[in-house]
Amino acid sequence: MAFRLTPQDQALLNGEAGAAVASAMSVLSAFSEALGAEELLDISRAHIDGCLFHGQVSLDFVERLVAGDGRVRVPTTLNVGSLDLIHPERVHLVPAAEAPARRLMEAHVALGCIPSFTCAPYQTRFRPKFGEQIAWGESNAIVFANSVIGARTNRYGDFIDLCCALTGRAPAWGLHLDENRRGQILFRLTGFPASQEATDGLFIAVGLLIGSQSVEKVPVIEGLPVPRDEDQLKALGAAAASAGAVGLFHAVGITPEAPTLADALGGQAPLAVITITPADVEAALARLSSVPDGAPLGAVCLGTPHFSLTEWKRLIPLVREIAPRCAVPIYVNTGRATLMALEETGALTGLTDFGVIPVADTCTYITAVLEQIDGVVMTNSGKWAHYAPGNIGVQVAFGSLEECVASAAAGRVVRGAA
Amino acid sequence: MIRPGRAYADGQAEGAALVLTEALSFWGGIDSATGTIIDRSHPQVGESVAGKILVMPGARGSSSSSSVLAECLRLGTGPLGILLARPDPILTVAALVARSLYGIACPILVAEIAGIATGDRLRLQANQGGGHAEILPAH
User: Fold this and answer.
1) Does the predicted model carry a pTM greater than 0.90?
2) Which among A59, A94, A229, B126 has the fewest CB atoms less than 10 Å away?
């Protein structure tokens, strides 16, 4: 069947809601037709990944929409930008780079977007509900929304997420539709003790392994222990989306579309069955570190994706207990709303004296935040460990949250019991 | 030799092929200022896509790749056209936006890529969903 616009879509394309909406609908309909969609569907919210400055094209696209009186038609959150607008002194950009980065963030707000500037919009009050049709950019947010919540979005790239927000529509295609959400590849955890602990490292390793081996198929994970909290599933998804192109995974007995293996697979046989052993997990985590234990550290970076309140509540007592005097700073990326909530309760009092540096609105692997990057940086994030060497040229040590705090106190990579 | 394909972005282009043996993420994989491949794990690292017909199995990785390809097209450091074995929505958006903003066409065609070598002269024709790739005789 050929692609068809409804009369309402056609009216938007004809400019009845202004020039900006017309150009957004023009790009969206050409895109949807190219994919092979038959029609568009309504979305209830959007999340935009275009606030990060990639060159003049970023500004040209958004400022044309502002000039054409564009306004988003659904609640629309914003992903991280290149600047920390809450602590401008944190980011060390030359003025020539700072000005366009700031303009880009402001132009999105001018379109009516919510200035959330977080890559974890699912942990704000704008979290979608099960079954909601949404158009989200940002790979970790996409996989969390689809997998952990059961909302429905494709992997929307820059530009098209904003076209969806301005029109309130998305292609009826891919992960928006029941038939494409069925699991196709089965990853089976085997050889683990029955009492295996739900460690952060296990979830990150499983994410890396399904990411690198799923190609474009929907993975199902069987045998994952019950997670301590949703942050472990967030870390799994972020790792899977960095190592590959995973937009949706099912964890049997854990995620909402997979109460049983048969549910996850839609009653069909998997295309392939891949085992994950304790040795695979160990090897995947070992690949994240490029330095030996004991290596001197320049910094510790946490919060990729952005730290939740729950993660802060794990970190704060650890810092007070283990690292009352850090040898190197602990940078923590987090959303501005999370930061405000923490500041209101006084939970952060005195933490900066310990060397904890909160970073809002952006992330330490995409912009110039770190004071000292000639050394090694330690992180508990699979995503940070994956991208930072290429983006900002650092060497990485990967460890648990406890190991990261103990290492910050010691100024070198410390493993095992602190 | 003509190979039929499916068009994802319209246009026509003719030039020398650059064949990538692995999928590439434009974000983190290409320097938009020069069009050079900077992903150190990629077999064709150091090659430039500028002014070439880019031939590859597919794309991968970040949803920001649409921005990076569109910026390359704006600067003239991008490919003249792209021939893929597997469709890629994120690159498709880049071509649509470059046309919409700057009137620059970068045809994207999905067709059989086996048997094409770097340096071969290719012509891509992509129009309204249909199109073909043609390997031209050497000069």
Assistant:
1) yes
2) A94
